[in-house]
Write a structure and sequence with these properties.
single chain, 472 residues, alpha+beta, Lysozyme, SH3 type barrels, 3 domains, five-stranded antiparallel β-sheet, two-stranded parallel sheet, 14 helices, SLH_dom, Lysozyme-like_dom_sf, signal
């Protein structure tokens, strides 16, 4: 860390401490754990603190080869390369001898210093939430100095850019690249030391919650953005034997942790989790916070469980109060309507008058069904049949009308075992088969008159929502 100038008292005490301290050795694992614990205590993403330490000394080094605290040419002390002005030492009652000799205290003061930088009148990233990693960008910049050398427009190796690169690579997190920043300076050489920010608000391409701030009992799900992999590994212990590979969006509950990953370059942590697969340890880089996801006790690990969690995360789908989802229960038409209304945020005019003769305000699911009728998704046959089972042909029609802007239209006939291209219901079914919402071909029947189960509908609906989000 650098400041504009170093107080004489700070520099003198630092050198004395370095010379008088007893020989000590660096312990990367212990230092990483201290940084994580301090981050959790102070509400700072541990990913950020560990990346700063790694940047400052090319690793987790508080001591030099002789076992004395590291002191850089510009007076930076120890693991976090701390320097303070005389005014800061007095105002914040900083003990410079402990800065050199006590690593716990050293890390605590570094965290406090970073928090003070976060409180400065600096630009806000996204909504400025301390739990989001991107929101610390300008505080990390200020930790090293708001001088021209840290301007990312002119220096690819700006301090905070290196720190965020370590977060991406060493904590294994997909954080978006820094957008273009507007930074101004004064005309004199002295004024060029201080950045000015005309724009006070920035939106990053990502908004990444710090998973290393997760607590025991947190509701999470498995997910990462590494190309070519659509599962996450669960291990017998942190870094231990592989015991399971679980799909994205598998709902989990954290039961213990965090535990530091082994190795100086590995800044992620492991959590002990439980789910329908059992119990095990999973890396923080493979987790995301969930919206109080339910681990339904009647769902087995697999595509239905992850489809349900995917929709539950988007507040589209629910289970029953007894903790079950009941995937084999037949889906009623009113329930199918409710899912589409929630997912697409559909509405109707207050003065809309329904036309279906069997739809009245006393009909279960009336509001959702009225909205679906208004949008022409249901009720085209006259009767709404709110509590009747939804069959697979009706499902195909509803999905086509709901996701018409998303689905591709096949440019050739798709052969389906139990359908003819002349059938009235063929076109809607061919579209969802073509878009891989369901499977059917010349050897596989679609079974258009079979009832749709809750588990099947979750799969079809999840695939449609994914396609919509991919194309948006």
């Amino acid at each position: 860390m650098k400041t504009l100038w170093i107080g004489a008292a700070a520099l003198t005490i630092s050198i004395m401490s370095a010379q008088s301290a007893s020989a000590e050795e660096n312990d990367a694992q212990a230092f990483k754990q201290m940084l994580t614990e301090t981050g959790i205590e102070k509400g700072i993403p541990p990913e950020v603190l560990k990346a700063i330490a790694y940047k400052e000394n090319g690793g987790f080094n508080h001591y030099d080869e002789d076992g004395s605290p590291v002191v850089s040419d510009d007076g930076g002390i120890g693991l976090m390369q701390l320097t303070f002005t005389d005014q800061e030492i007095e105002r914040f009652d900083i003990d410079m001898e402990r800065i050199a000799e006590d690593v716990d205290y050293h890390i605590e003061q570094a965290a406090e210093h970073l928090l003070r930088k976060k409180a400065l009148n600096l630009p806000i990233v996204n909504d400025g939430e301390n739990t989001d990693i991107e929101s610390w960008y300008f505080a990390v910049m200020a930790y090293n100095g708001l001088s021209e050398i840290n301007d990312p427009n002119t220096h690819d190796d700006a301090y905070q850019e290196d720190v965020f690169s370590y977060i991406r690579n060493n904590s294994v997190i997909s954080i978006g690249e820094t957008p273009e920043l507007e930074i101004n300076y004064g005309e004199t050489d002295e004024d060029r030391l201080i950045m000015r920010f005309p724009d006070r608000d920035y939106t990053w391409p990502t908004e990444t919650p710090a998973m290393q701030l997760a607590e025991t009992g947190s509701s999470v799900y498995s997910y990462h953005e590494f190309e070519g992999f659509d599962t996450s590994n669960v291990r017998s212990e942190p870094g231990g034997q592989l015991i399971a590979s679980i799909n994205h969006y598998t709902p989990l509950e954290i039961t213990d942790g965090p535990f530091e990953a082994a190795g100086e370059a590995n800044h992620y942590v492991f959590y002990k989790v439980k789910g329908n697969f059992g119990e095990g340890y999973i890396a923080s880089s493979n987790l995301q916070f969930g919206n109080e996801l339910t681990i339904f006790n009647d769902l087995s690990p697999g595509e239905i469980e992850t489809a349900v969690a995917y929709l539950q995360q988007r507040e589209v789908i629910n289970g029953y109060e007894d903790g079950t989802y009941r995937p084999f229960n037949v889906l009623q038409r009113r329930h199918a309507a409710a899912l589409i209304v929630r997912a697409l945020d559909l509405e109707k005019p207050e003065n809309y008058e329904v036309t279906s003769p069997d739809l009245t305000p006393d009909t279960p699911g009336y509001e959702d069904l009225a909205i679906m009728e208004y949008h022409g998704i249901m009720g085209r046959g006259g009767q709404m049949n709110a509590e009747s089972p939804l069959n697979r042909s009706q499902m195909a029609s509803m999905l086509n009308r709901s996701f018409a802007a998303v689905y591709d239209i096949p440019d050739e006939v798709i052969n389906i075992k139990d359908l003819s291209a002349d059938d009235q219901i063929y076109e809607d079914i061919a579209v969802i088969v073509h878009n891989e919402i369901t499977n059917a071909d010349e050897n596989t029947a679609f079974n258009p008159w079979n009832s749709v189960t809750r588990g099947q509908y979750a799969l079809f609906f999840e695939r449609s929502i994914r396609l919509m989000e991919k194309n948006s």
